[in-house]
Amino acid sequence: LKALVSKTTKDAATELFGALGYVSRKTADLDGAPSSFLKFVDRDGKLATKNEAQVEKWGRVDFLFQLTNDEIPILAQDNRDLFASQQDFRTSIIESFVFLAIELVDEDWSRSALAGITREINRLFPMPALILFKHSGFASLAVIDRRPNKKDGSRDVVEMRISIVKDINLSSPHRAHVDILCDIALSAVKVRGRGTPTNFRDLYDGWIEALSAQTLNTRFYRELANWFFWSVKQVTFPAASIGTEAKKARRAKPDRRYPAAHPADLRLVHQGKGPRAQRLV
C-alpha cells in the first residue's frame, strides 16, 4: 500500500495484488493515458457520454492483468512460475477477472461516485473488472457483483451492488482496512467454509461473501464479544470495586440518623406521645 506513494501506480498496484496472491501475464500493453484505455475498450465512445463515468476526472488508467479460470488453481498451489510468457488480453475468456488501476483527480470522492465509475466501466467488459482507485493520498478497491444472464449464458448482468473498501490511507493504513484486504487474499478466501477456491465462480463468490456488509458486521461483533470476554478475566475496574465495598459497609453499620430507642420512649410511641410519635404520625 505504501508503495502507491513512492512508485508508479501500475507497478505498486501490481505488487499489491501479487501480495494478495493474484498475478497473471495476460495483459494489455497500454501507455496509461485515459484516451488509450478508452480507445481499447470503448471504440464507440459511449463511456465518455456517461455522466457517472466522470472520464474528465481520470488522470491515469492502467490495465494491470487478466486473471483467467485456468490460472486460479495454479495460483492456489503457489506455482506461479508455471505461467507462460506475457500474453494479450482476450475478451473471449468470460470466466476471468480484469484488474485495473485508476488515478483520479485529488478531491473528496464519495462512495456513490466511485460506484458509478465502477458500474460504467464494468458495462464495457464481458467479465468482472476489479478497480483500484488512487485519490488524494488514499486508495479504494471496488468489486462489483455480477450474475450470469439467464437468457444468454455467455453474458453477465451488472448488478447494482458494489462493495468498496474505501479511503485506505496510503501513508498510514488503518488496521481494519488491512484486515479486509487480507480477507480477500487468495489463501484466505473461503466459500461457505470450503477450502481455497480453485475456479472462477468460487473465487468470485468468496470475494462477494468476504466484502458483504453482513459478513463484516458479524466479524466486528464477534471480535468485540471476544475482547469483552477476555477483558473481564484480565482487567479489574476500581470504580465498581469501591462502589461494591461501600455498599457492604453501609449494610454492616447500624442506621445512626436516630438514637437508639429507650424502653420509655417506646411506651410514649405506643401512646402516641413524644417527638418520635409525632414524626411517625
Task: Describe the protein's architecture and organization.
With 281 residues, this protein is α/β, with parallel strands linked by helices. Helices cover 40% and strands 20% of the residues. The chain is built from 11 helices and 7 strands. The strands form 2 sheets. A 5-stranded mixed sheet has the order 2-4-5-6-7, with helices on both faces. Strands 1-3 form a two-stranded parallel sheet. A hairpin with a 7-residue loop joins β6 (138-148) and β7 (156-169). The model is unreliable at 264-281 (pLDDT under 50).
Q: Which word captures the global form?
A: globular
Which structural class is indicated by helix and strand composition?
alpha/beta
**Helical run tally:** 11
* CA distance, first residue to last residue: 80 Å
In this structure, how is the largest beta sheet organized?
5 strands, mixed
Strand order of the largest sheet: 2-4-5-6-7
Strand runs, count: 7
- Average of the residue pLDDT scores: 81
Alpha carbon gyration radius: 32 Å
Helix share of residues? 40-55%
Order of helices and strands: HHEHEHEEHEEEHHHHHH
Oligomer: single chain
Strand content: 15-25%
Unreliable sequence segments? 264-281
